[in-house]
Amino acid sequence: NVNREREARNNLIRLRQDTKTAEEFFILFNEYYLRSGFNEQTAIFYLQNGAVNKNIVSRILLNTPLPSTLSEWQDKIILLD
Q1: Which of 30, 36, 63, 78 is the most buried (most CB within 10 A)?
Q2: Residue 30 to residue 4: CA distance in whole angstroms
């Protein structure tokens, strides 16, 4: 359904971690992601650019190697939260 996909995309784009734990955040994120039709790289882009608390993303970006898959990004974010 095109409307469900559009709604999921809009929800994913607006979603922010804020005071949620990473686990709580990813329950919503994964629900929206799976319905959005976005590819994995687009989902990672949103994680890196405002969806997840900036201090967590900064800590990940300062270390190498960087996570390369959505699953690796999620695991690392949960670990650092």
Answers
A1: 36
A2: 15
